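for the recovery benchmark. tokens below, seq after
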């Protein structure tokens, strides 16, 4: 089969590459993609240093926790949990840029980062200690999927209602706690409890009322979101997606598509999942069968409703003025859970002390060895 600008050998090499990626389970694929991301990251040393300096030490986290307990005992002064700093790059606070957020997303998360099209909002979450911002985690929101079966069934809306009201939902596509805060103190649950405050910035930016948030687990239905009473597990995603080649391969084939199929690319760029549409186009142009180029890694789908009648609103049964805010009284709940977590880890001698920050592949390897995942 002759295809413009490429050889049979190049097609076969891509086919073998995709076959290898398809053979990996969800965790193995995540680690391979992360290795690829770190290998190809081109952050300067100064940029890495700026990001790393934001991460709190174990001693600083202990001070933060002590201030929480002290306030709860004395009920005097400022409640540290009411004084959490939530910063967006849109706030134009010196240093807190999109570039810094992306650097952190690459260096403190074990999951590869890929920014998608459409609306988005990024957040730095932390506390001040001696006039220094200490990062507890990063979060980002994006426009929610046009179609998601378990979500749509849970809401009960029709196609017209979904088309009209989908922008009243956001997808939490990043929620990463810094370490050791995440491990020792249930940092992910902490971040997930701040949804009402985080949503406020999105509403201001896009002038759109947000009534619910979706997110997905990384592997199957088990995740750090489980057990958070404001988040409801709806089921799983379909899991069927085209496999994307790793960076070097994708750079070549993406360039080939742009050079030879520019008109077709323009047609798929406006679709709800443009990357998946582009991959489908590539494999069709190469004469590949779709069945062998998809993985079936299902993920748990969860939702957090911010109003008691949010589903009725999305079905056009109530107006904005009739929305009834859901009381998310998270502080007592999280403090109790966090204390129990810390006590359990202490008894088992499993408390983490190290800051997680991937500057190179050695850092990733060390982290995997500690957790027995190498």
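predicted aa per position
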């Amino acid at each position: 089969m002759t295809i413009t600008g490429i050889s049979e050998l190049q097609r076969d090499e891509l086919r073998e590459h995709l076959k290898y990626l398809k053979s990996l389970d969800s965790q193995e694929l995540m680690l391979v993609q992360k290795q690829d991301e770190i290998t190809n990251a081109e952050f300067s040393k100064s940029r890495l240093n700026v990001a790393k300096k934001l991460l709190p030490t174990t001693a600083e986290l202990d001070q933060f926790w002590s201030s929480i307990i002290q306030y709860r005992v004395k009920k005097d002064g400022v409640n540290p949990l009411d004084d959490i700093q939530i910063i967006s790059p849109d706030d134009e606070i010196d240093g807190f840029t999109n570039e810094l957020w992306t650097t952190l997303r690459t260096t403190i998360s074990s999951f590869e980062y890929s920014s998608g099209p459409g609306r988005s909002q990024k957040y730095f979450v932390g506390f001040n200690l001696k006039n220094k911002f200490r990062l507890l985690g990063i979060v980002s929101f994006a426009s929610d999927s046009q179609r998601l079966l378990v979500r749509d069934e849970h809401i009960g809306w029709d196609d017209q209602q979904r088309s009209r009201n989908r922008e009243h939902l956001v997808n939490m596509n990043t929620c990463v706690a810094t370490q050791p805060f995440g491990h020792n103190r249930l940092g992910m649950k902490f971040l997930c409890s701040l949804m009402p405050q985080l949503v406020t910035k999105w509403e201001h930016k896009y002038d759109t009322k947000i009534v619910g948030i979706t997110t997905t687990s990384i592997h199957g239905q088990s995740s750090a979101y489980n057990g958070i009473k404001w988040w409801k597990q709806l089921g799983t995603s379909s899991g069927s997606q085209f496999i994307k080649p790793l960076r070097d391969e994708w750079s070549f084939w993406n360039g080939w598509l742009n050079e030879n199929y520019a008109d077709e690319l323009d047609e798929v760029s406006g679709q709800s999942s443009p990357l998946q549409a582009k991959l489908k186009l590539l494999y069709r142009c190469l004469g590949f069968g779709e069945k062998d180029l998809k993985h079936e890694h299902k993920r748990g789908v969860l939702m957090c409703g911010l109003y008691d009648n949010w589903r009725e609103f999305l079905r056009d049964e109530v107006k904005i003025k009739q929305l009834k805010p859901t009381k998310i009284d998270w502080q007592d709940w999280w403090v109790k859970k966090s204390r129990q977590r810390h006590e359990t880890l202490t008894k088992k001698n499993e408390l983490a002390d190290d800051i997680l920050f991937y500057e190179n592949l050695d850092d990733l390897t060390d982290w995997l060895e500690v957790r027995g995942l190498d």
